[in-house]
Design a protein that fits this description.
Blueprint: E1 23-30, H1 37-49, E2 54-59, H2 73-83, E3 90-92, H3 95-98, H4 105-115, E4 119-126, H5 127-131, H6 139-145, E5 147-151, E6 164-167, H7 176-180, H8 190-198, H9 203-208, H10 213-232, H11 237-246, H12 255-265, H13 277-288, H14 295-302, H15 312-323, H16 332-340, H17 342-360
Parallel strand pairs: 1-2, 1-4, 2-3, 4-5, 5-6
The structure holds adenosine-5'-diphosphate.
InterPro entries: Cyt_trans-like (IPR004821), HD/PDEase_dom (IPR003607), HD_domain (IPR006674), NadD/NMNAT (IPR005248), Rossmann-like_a/b/a_fold (IPR014729), YqeK (IPR005249)
Protein name: Probable nicotinate-nucleotide adenylyltransferase
Domain HD: 215-326
């Protein structure tokens, strides 16, 4: 069958063979790095329109047509389990993660057909995969071995010589690539965001894709130092690392984009020098855009430029930011003091920061 038109919802369903009592299982292979709402919408479309009993998500150990190093399989599996926990007809199938080497679908389908003779399988793909289906290992044999169904993930009409049955799905405009750079995070549930941050997945790229390289290196360095100060003071190292990583996430945001944030959430700070605005906006963006809903982190980022909070986490990031060894001056003694006595180190940092600001005030240069 040639596919040259995307069917409307009314013409898509296949009439199941009434004599066939096998469980109808849809297989959905992918990197799931990470899983997102587009994957779930595909699975729901397949359950509805293919009258399937179940959808099995199959994370690849190594995706043959992707050169990028994937996030470790145990994380991708754990994230799928979180995303599917309220989906009784969906589960994770781990055979590809358990098999060494590249994850070729033909090997997976052969294995599953042997392992589950009571199942009638359909393999589901997006139209991007339909376009490159000829590159899949033993594509012709595979197309004979198992039925294929596809969704038009971007609404685009795709032609193929393979017998692939299109089902309808309202486009869900998201990809894992976008999620990995911190865009369209509303397409993953909060619990998954919490998993990213607890396991330090993707979040460095959230920052990297928003600031110049030197600022990114500074953010990593501040994350490490904030964590170190926090651990030395008996605080939560993970919370501190995230605070340091995100403290400058809005540093490269143009002033005219920051202004509406300030107007909306802290208009009283509009009188401050714009060089300090990124701290106020950064606190909001970390919470509302990146979904790090932690008032202590927001507070610490809010105050990191001027050191105006005496919460210990805020002290850690303020000091780490000022003492970052990448700034190029000798900060060893003060770093050592912060490790031994955070409060004393904080007071000294604040005093020297004040001196510096005073000395440069005539140029209206800030030291953040
Ligand atoms: N937003 C989406 N809408 C429909 N299908 C999608 C979407 N995102 C991914 N898919 C499909 O899901 C399968 C697994 O994709 P995967 O490699 O995990 O993700 P991505 O393409 O987002 O990096 C592929 O067949 C892909 O075409």
């Amino acid at each position: 069958m040639h596919v040259d038109a995307i069917p409307s919802r009314s013409v898509v369903s296949r009439v199941p063979d009434v004599a066939d009592t096998r469980r109808r299982v849809v297989l959905l292979g992918g990197s799931f790095d990470p899983v997102h709402a587009g994957h779930l919408a595909m699975a729901h479309a397949a359950l509805d329109q293919l009258e399937a009993d179940e959808v099995w998500f199959i994370p690849a150990r190594q995706a043959p047509l992707k050169s990028r190093q994937l996030t470790p399989g145990e994380h991708r599996k754990a994230m799928l389990e979180i995303a599917l926990k309220n989906e009784p007809q969906m589960r994770v199938e781990t055979c590809e993660l358990e098999r060494e080497g590249e994850s070729f679908t033909i090997d997976t389908v052969r294995y599953l057909k042997k392992q589950y003779p009571d199942c009638d399988f359909t393999f589901l793909v997006g139209n991007d995969q339909v376009e490159q289906f000829h590159k899949w290992k033993e594509a012709d044999a595979l197309a004979r071995l198992v039925k294929f169904a596809a969704v038009a993930r971007d609404g685009r009409n795709v032609k193929t010589k393979y017998p692939i049955h299109f089902i309808h799905m309202d486009p869900v405009p998201v990809s894992s690539t976008e999620i990995r750079t911190g865009n369209r995070l509303n397409y993953v549930p909060q619990e998954l965001l919490d998993y990213f941050y607890a396991n330090r997945l993707y979040c460095k790229d959230f920052v990297k894709s928003r600031v110049p390289d030197r600022r990114y290196m500074h953010s990593l360095s501040v994350a490490r130092l904030t964590e170190e100060f926090a651990l030395a003071a008996g605080l939560d190292g993970q919370q501190a690392w995230l605070t340091g990583l995100f403290h400058d996430v809005c540093k490269a945001m143009p002033v005219d984009r920051m202004r509406p944030w300030l107007e909306a959430v802290c208009p009283e700070e509009l009188t401050m020098h714009p060089a300090a605005w990124h701290s106020y906006v950064g606190a909001q963006v970390t919470d509302r855009v990146f979904g790090i809903h932690d008032p202590r982190i927001s507070n610490a980022i809010f105050h990191h430029v001027k050191g105006t909070s005496d919460d210990p986490l805020a002290m850690c990031v303020f000091c780490a930011d000022k003492l970052d060894p990448l700034r190029g001056y000798d900060s060893y003694d003060l770093i050592d003091l912060c490790r031994r006595d955070l409060k004393a180190g904080f007071e000294k940092c604040r005093a020297s920061n004040r001196e510096y600001v005073d000395a440069h005030r005539k140029d209206a240069v800030w030291t953040n």
